Amino acid sequence: MQHAGDFDATATKHAAFASERTAAALPRTVYPFRMGGMAFGALAIAAVLVEHQAGPLRWALCIATGILWPQLAYWLARRSASPFHAEQRNLVIDSMLAAAWVPLLHFNLLPSVLLLALPAADKINSDVPGILRRTLLPSLLALVAAGLATGFAFSPHTSTPVMLACLPMLLLHTMLVSLGRRQLLRKVIRRNQALRQLGSTDMVTGLFLRRHWEQASLDVLREVHEGRQAAMLALIDVDGFKHANDGHGHVAGDALLRAAGKLLLETLRPGDIAGRYGGDEFAIAFPHTSPTEAARLCEAYRRAVEAIELEEAPGLPLSVSIGLAEARSGHARIEDWIQAADRALYDAKRSGRNRLVVASGPGQGASTP
Question: For the CA atoms of 154, 159, 165, 170, what is the dihedral angle to 10 degrees?
Fold first, then answer.
């Protein structure tokens, strides 16, 4: 299994740095959605302007809204000392522009509804706290100002050509927003998975933390009690750890644990559960495994550790001692199973280390294969 370090001040700084980078990236994230939304909105606006035989001023405003404003907004946000806050101002202006077009279009029903509803949806999807609330009053003021300029001319009928021109804004913009939310959700899921792994994985060895290993191994023991499988448990003591620490420093000790943990993960099969049980002790639960197969895997690991060469401690002889025990119906708790393997490990260390001892028989006496 795997294990994670504590979320200390360093982790907090990393999280804060990640948040700052996310905030700084907001203009780049919003830009394609603003481009699409404004362009589709301008298409619907243009359809109404054609029907109204609008003059050059409104056509200039349409071009400015659909093409020029997205570029200007992006430029302003990127040049700002605080892109995140600048982009929030841009989002407010987006809604003001959309609201102003409602009376300029004489309240043509379908485009007016879309011009009010889609920017509001954008604010919700932006995940910027309070941004929708902050846009309400400015948008209302923009609508009233444009209404006063047009005398609140009211012509709500929506023709078929205008409906067709509204379809890209209604469909494509919605698809873009949905795609953005999907990507965001996937990113959140990946980060949550990484956090869960950090919370269960030892940073040095890559093995599970003891509490996670014990919980998973307890599930294996339950299946043994239910008669669904045989299972084995190994406790491993890294013999050279103290010598590496005392003779070469803690860097060498960590290097030894890192190499031994990596080698253990490479030796085990999918489904085997490995954890860092203590400072220099590892533990493995072997589900659906006979004593012969578990002993073969442990012996292969023991021999592989002998071949480890540490740059931090050249020439240091390395080895592991292993105690192996089969799960029994009499093991009411995970601690009982661990104790059986621990007795076998004690015998392995007492008889000279660098060996595997298998607990044998109902009384869990030990034998060396």
Answer: 70
| Collapsed DSSP state (helix, strand, coil) of residue 284 | strand
pLDDT tens per residue, range 209-245: 888 888 889 989 988 888 877 899 999 999 877 777 7
Euclidean distance between CA atoms 64 and 7, whole angstroms? 49
Q: Is 361 exposed, middle or buried (0-12, 13-18, 19+ CB in 10 A)?
A: exposed
Q: How far is CA 54 from CA 66, 144, 159, in A?
A: 16, 20, 16
- 118 and 228 in a single domain? The answer is no
The reported pLDDT for the residue numbered 193 is 54
Res 9: pLDDT: 33
List CB contacts of 44: < 8 A, sequence separation 6 or more: 110, 111, 114, 115, 162, 165, 166, 168, 169
CATH (domain of 218): 3.30.70.270
pLDDT of 294 reads 94
Report the domain count for the chain.
2
CB 329 within 8 A of CB 350: no
Same domain, 301 and 351: yes
Task: At 356, give phi and psi (nearest 5°).
Answer: -110, 130
Confidence of residue 253 (pLDDT cuts 50, 70, 90): confident
Whether 190 and 239 map to the same domain: the answer is: no
Q: Contact 84/24 with Cβ under 8 angstroms? A: yes
The residues pairing with 21 across neighbouring beta strands, listed in sequence order, are none
CB atoms within 10 A of CB 256: 26
Q: How far is CA 290 from CA 17, 188, 233, 272, 327, in A?
A: 49, 41, 11, 13, 10
Across 204-213, average pLDDT: 86
> pLDDT for 142-164, tens place per residue?
999 999 999 999 999 999 999 99
Q: Indicate if the pLDDT at residue 302 is higher than 60.
A: yes
3-state secondary structure of 65: helix
